[in-house]
Design goal:
Length: 127
């Protein structure tokens, strides 16, 4: 029995008219996951950039004013106040990224198994 058999969303035997529907559903779920992963990677890069910029200021000027956008409102804080929050947010984003990446890999394995089970071959698109 495959390791992900209990979590698979594919019924053991589908009627022929349902195969393309399930194929498209799995494909769209993978695209959604990939899009969300891309968004979070971009957000993580932004957090890392800001942290790398502010870290030297923590030693030299911890009371220096900086601004942070919170829910569309620009808030004035000090470097010492902002860095711990940014670090917490950054680590949270990284954890969510790991979870989504694992979900994507599981969904990809499910997709490949589905293709094998129903002998589906995807032809490359020509422009």
């Amino acid at each position: 029995m495959p390791p992900n058999a209990s979590t698979s969303t594919i019924p053991p035997k589908l009627p022929p008219d349902q195969v393309p529907v399930v194929f498209q559903r799995i494909r769209s779920e993978m695209q959604s996951l990939a899009q969300k992963i891309g968004e979070l990677e971009s957000e993580a890069e932004e957090h890392a950039l800001v942290l790398n910029t502010l870290q030297p200021l923590l030693q030299t000027a911890p009371e220096r004013t900086c601004y942070r956008l919170i829910g569309g409102v620009l808030v004035q804080r000090t470097v010492a106040d902002v860095i711990p929050t940014l670090e917490t947010n950054y680590s949270g984003i990284k954890e969510v990224l790991e979870t989504l990446t694992k979900s994507y890999k599981n969904k990809d394995e499910e997709f490949v198994a589905f293709q094998r089970q129903y002998d589906i071959q995807v032809s490359p698109r020509t422009p």
